[in-house]
From TrEMBL:
Organism, scientific name: Marinobacter nanhaiticus D15-8W
Record PANTHER family: 2-DEHYDRO-3-DEOXY-6-PHOSPHOGALACTONATE ALDOLASE-RELATED, 2-KETO-3-DEOXY-6-PHOSPHOGLUCONATE ALDOLASE
Annotated NCBIfam families: eda (TIGR01182), PRK05718.1 (NF004325)
E.C. no: 4.1.2.14
Record's keyword annotation contains Lyase: yes
Record keywords, A-Z: Carbohydrate metabolism, Lyase, Schiff base
Biological or metabolic pathway of the protein: Carbohydrate acid metabolism; 2-dehydro-3-deoxy-D-gluconate degradation; D-glyceraldehyde 3-phosphate and pyruvate from 2-dehydro-3-deoxy-D-gluconate: step 2/2
Molecular function as annotated in GO: 2-dehydro-3-deoxy-phosphogluconate aldolase activity
Pfam families: Aldolase
Protein name: 2-dehydro-3-deoxy-phosphogluconate aldolase
């Protein structure tokens, strides 16, 4: 009998996504970038930081930012195995995001400490998560999987599901997604341009965050 997600887990994900409509997808290529980058995003009004495991520095960055930025929610992205889930849980990640779903990742999430936002692109993947009690999903890769129109279609069979679309979204298009009732937040790497990070241009990172948040209101 598969385990089901608890209401407490569902609420944790909802409260997380309620804190900030934009989720920066962060890849740390140099360990010394983690703290100034985190600080720059927080200074720009971003309070959720998704540190991906795409680089070998992700895990240490999660530990560092958890300790240094108590005002932010620091979580892990690009988690693809249960071993990685365990590691980021131990490192103090406050949430876990996967690019896709497997039965074993969903099963693990029902007993893990950090709540999971599973990635889905199709109705069948959503159904896998839905049957386990998940009501929040990352929609990835959003733009190439149908974007805003796909999300409108998902609302038919899954009216109680909420999404964080990610993949191909830019500051100019984030608003179109957030206008949908079933979208609670939008993720993307546009908030952390690699050239700004390489140049240590933290003011630019803060400015992009502020501009992106302002565009949602305008
Ligand atoms: O690494 C992962 O776990 C992912 O799921 C991929 C990222 O979320 C996207 O690559 C971000 O998309 P862009 O904003 O188009 O760069």
């Amino acid at each position: 009998m598969p385990s089901l997600l608890t209401e407490a887990h569902r609420q944790q994900v909802q409260s997380l996504l309620d804190t900030c409509p934009l989720v920066p997808v962060i890849a740390i290529n140099k360990p010394e970038h983690a703290l100034p980058l985190g600080r720059a995003l927080v200074a720009g009004g971003i309070t959720i930081l998704e540190i991906t495991l795409r680089t070998p520095y992700g895990l240490d960055a999660i530990r560092e930012l958890r300790a240094a930025l108590p005002e932010a929610w620091v979580g892990a992205g690009t988690v693809t195995t249960i071993e990685q889930y365990r590691e980021v849980d131990k490192a103090g990640a406050q949430f876990v995001i996967t690019p896709g779903v497997t039965e074993s990742l969903l099963e693990h999430a029902t007993t893990a400490r950090a709540p999971l936002l599973p990635g889905v692109a199709t109705m069948s993947e959503m159904l896998m998560g839905y049957q386990r009690g998940f009501r929040h999903f990352k929609f990835f890769p959003a733009e190439v999987s149908g974007g805003v129109n796909a999300l409108k279609a998902f609302a038919g069979p899954f009216p109680d599901v909420r999404f964080c679309p990610t993949g191909g979204i830019k500051k100019e298009t984030a608003k179109d997604y957030l206008a949908l009732d079933n979208v609670v937040a939008v993720g993307g790497s546009w908030l952390t341009p690699q050239d700004a990070i390489d140049a240590g241009d933290w003011d630019r990172v803060t400015a992009i965050a502020k501009e992106s948040l302002a565009l949602l209101k305008g």
